[in-house]
Amino acid sequence: IGQITLMQMNMTFKLFFIGLLAFCNIVNAQExxxxxxxxxxxxxxxxxxSLRGAPIDTPAIDSIFSGGLALNxxxxxxxxxxxxxxxxxxxxxLRLGISYSVVMPWMNNGVHPDEHFMPESFKAAGYQTxxxxxxxxxxxxxxxxxxxxxxxxxxxxxxxxxxYFPPFANQGGIDFQRNGETISDxxxxxxxxxxxxxRWIKARDKEKPFFLYMPFIxxxxxxxxxxDLVQKYKNLEDTRELTRSVAIDRTRTLSGFLPSARxxxxxxxxxxxxxxxKVLDTLASEGIEEETIILFSSDNGGAAYAGGxxxxxxxxxxxxxxxxxxxxxxxxxxxxxxxxxxxxxxSIMTVMDVFPTLASASxxxxxxxxxxxxxxxxxxxxxxxxxxxxxxxxxxxxxxNYGEFHTTVFNDKWKLVQVIxxxxxxxxxxxxxxxxxxxxxxxxxxxEEYPKLVEIxxxxxxxxxxxxxxxxxxxxxxxxxxxRAPKDWTSYTIPIEDLQExxxxxxxxxxxxxxxxLIKDHGRIIYDCKPxxxxxxxCKAPELPKTHQH
Length: 550
Hints:
By secondary structure, the chain is of the alpha/beta class. It is 29% helix and 16% strand. It has 15 helices and 19 strands. A hairpin with a 3-residue loop joins strand 17 (404-410) and strand 18 (414-422). Helix 6 (189-202) runs parallel beside helix 9. The longest helix has 30 residues, at 2-31. It starts with a helix and ends in a 31-residue tail after the last helix.
């Protein structure tokens, strides 16, 4: 009897141990977080993949749409740097001072170090993080750089328009680095990024999830491609419709202005697709397709002006506009085995929603302390449910013409497009109102039929624009007179240890509250503070450094 009892006890213990192991495995499986890859392409048109009828081979990009969820109403800002700022922070880029224009090489601007970036939350949750590609969110001080914003590894360019072939320079200065060290890798830029991303994925710590951000330069101008791709599309006919944007179409209709950019643009997009395909093949060969969330998006509408080559039809306008063609972009999300393939998501989603949505899908706590505009769209995406906007969306651009502002405010039904042109003596305001739910391609201007609604929405834009920091970015297409570019952009950067600890308050710091109140609609002196908020105790007036206190 004793032997039987002992045997039974041993068997019970074994069963208990096996059950405990099984339970632990289940818990570990539940707690395992997915990898995340963000493919952000530059100036890709709404209609520029073969899945949407484009005469361009894009099987890799098509596979993200066909194997995932097409985000059919995904919105970004009309231009580059503001979209990247919104993507990284979940915040309204106008509040950050990066809205009207992009970070030009001769600027000192960047995103305020007090702002929290998406990779910082993922890194704190145990993710290994990397960025491969174009930054364009500040280069003058190291505190603005990718490695200071949550990325363990950075390979790429601080600026835009560095070219697709060596020496990868902007304004004549070399702009190619790995974690702050200048590099001289040879090859086609788009392919180099794919090679680096694939290498990094294979060399990763397989015990930890990863967060990979891949902001390509392609297909941004100036367009260049390998010889074989140039030859492949050299006879491509340009059959694009006009965009119905005066600013864009006038560049394409001037006789002899420029030859069609469509053939070389197609070659660049084909190369982009090959690069994305290589990264997707790496996921497959590593056996981690079902463990990886993929988000694909353009940073703004396609550059449809002369020299750009993109096609946003049937959307109106393109890059730089606040018509749909400038802000409603091609986008998709894929998570094999988790999201039903080949479906469409029709709710409005913006680039500001990406951070909270990916954090939610990955089970990553967001460590933001500032208010974000973005919403967690993951429950709606996962369950295929439609969700309404809970507040209006605002976008603006002053690019390329100084003093010409393209703005918009919209909700699920109504959209006001406002173009404000200023000279030294006058300001002209053009309002166009669309029922965007019924007229998504913006053919019928209803401004004259609903003047009161136009007045209300225009006032919303005015109040929103008053939140812009007064020294935030404005259009500056040329450098200050006499400015010289560095020979190497890596050496241009001021290291963190050479900077003071606190952000500078500038002159008149002792009177910031009064000045902020008096400036009213012109913008904000006190960073991230609404007009009158400091009076109501909702935000603090800046504290003077001890050396300036009396």
